[in-house]
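Large ribosomal subunit protein bL21m
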Amino acid sequence: MTVHIHGNPYLITEGDTVRLPFLMQGVEPGDVIRLNRAINLGSRDYALKAPAASPKMKSPTTATVSIVDPTTGTLATHSRVMPTSGLAATEGTVHAPHFVPHLAKGKFSYVDDRMFVCRAVVTGVESEPMRIKEKTKRRQRHVKKVKSKHRYTIIKIKELRVKSVEEIESGEVD
């Protein structure tokens, strides 16, 4: 099974220990986490993959229409109007809504989380040895020592199973 944790893919099986490259906030050792962002389930021979990501959305303002001012009738005074979505829509075109702050939200599509159960237990927090990096500026005698000690969250996959058809149809929530 391949799951995404904070946008990073991890290939996991039941019983694996995963060292996440960051300190997960708000968890303590012993907490149970449900992982619900899976890209594919199964093995190399038989796998259930997530559907394809949604197509790229196109803005309906790809063209403008020039309108001549009827009062003067000259080409010098004209306005450029954006077409409405009904005029610009063609067959099979998906239009993006306006003011979307981040269009890359639909970059990944995931398997429906009702089809599987994946639970992990936080086993602890690890920290690397203290790193000391010396930073200098040109033509300066002063040496600045930057210290860093990163912490990592360790999780262990406790439960990983694909639900049967009867479990999915019954609608039980795990």
